[in-house]
Specification:
Helix content: 10-25%
Shape: globular
Strand order of the largest sheet: 5-4-3-2-1-13
CATH class: Alpha Beta
Number of domains: 1
Number of strands: 13
Length: 286
């Protein structure tokens, strides 16, 4: 299978914020200010953390219900749309979504022409099971002028199948809004497995991965930061962020992923032995 070679140059900015719990106005003001800095510095794709407008830890479902919004009609997504149109950029970020009586941890993608699509987190973590429904939209890949973009959220990235499904749908880039927790038992300097998993899965699937974490404290949890962008070689092509509020940048050609189809002698997807995997993983052996 072959594809015509094209160029898809993009400058990615991961905006690692210190989110204020349950303060949507303050969080949006911080995000707008940092997006202004990122867009001024030439970024045309901005990735925000998980639940960037509300924070993550809640006492009960009622608290988060009061903060959740319909997508795309809600105020937060409309503000992102307006900003993306004004600056001619793309934005990814996760926020609590309300649909009827159900709540979801949802990542949105908006761009210069408005709302593009959403992904709902499928692997819920900890107390999330008490207020969010597990995602029901699969793993969509959105075709944009800058490339094919997929999204997963935080704990989804601990399941290698999520990356593989996106890669098999020919995604060029997976964006991961995340809230990686600081874990004392994990080695310095990161104290989180997030960067390791990001790099390993970028390599395994020959894909770009942009993971945007957050920093700060909430009851019972300290956030690790360490946002990064990894290339199809697995190597980081951005600075790996520290544990402070900051923006990291990566410049890349997303079309570099497409040589996995052009060169089958070195294709991590085409060279899979599905005839051997099928019995255990449900692959077709045809």
């Amino acid at each position: 299978m072959s594809e015509e070679r094209i160029e898809l140059f993009v400058k990615i900015a991961c905006i690692q914020t210190e989110v204020k719990l349950k303060d949507k106005e303050a969080n949006m003001a911080i995000v707008i200010s940092l997006m202004e800095e990122a867009s001024t510095n030439g970024a045309n794709l901005i990735v925000l953390p998980e639940l960037f407008n509300t924070g993550y830890t809640f006492n009960n479902r009622t608290e988060i219900t009061s903060l959740a919004e319909p997508i795309p009609e809600g105020r937060t997504v409309q503000e992102l749309i307006d900003y993306a149109k004004e600056k001619n950029i793309y934005i990814v970020g996760s926020l609590p979504e309300r649909e009827g009586i159900d709540l979801y941890n949802t990542s949105v993608l908006v761009g210069p022409n408005g709302y593009i699509g959403k992904y709902r987190k499928t692997h819920l973590c900890g107390d999330e099971i008490y207020w969010f429904e597990s995602g029901n939209l699969g793993y969509p890949v959105f075709h944009t002028e800058i490339g094919r973009i997929a999204m997963i959220i935080c704990l989804d990235g601990y399941y290698p199948e999520t990356y593989r499904i996106c890669a098999l749908q020919k995604a060029d880039l997976i964006c991961i809004p995340t809230n990686w927790a600081h874990c004392d038992h994990l080695p310095a300097p990161w104290h989180t497995m997030g960067p390791t998993l990001t790099m390993a899965n970028a390599l395994s699937n020959h894909i770009f991965v942009a993971a945007c974490s957050r920093v700060g404290q909430e009851p019972g949890i300290s956030y690790a930061g360490h946002s990064l962008v990894a290339s199809p070689t697995g190597a980081p092509i951005s600075t790996i962020a520290g544990k402070n509020q900051q923006i990291i940048y990566a410049e890349c050609n997303l079309a570099d992923t497409r040589n996995r189809y052009l060169d089958k002698t070195n294709s991590r997807l085409a060279n899979r032995r599905t005839d051997l995997y099928g019995e255990f993983l449900g692959y077709s052996t045809n």
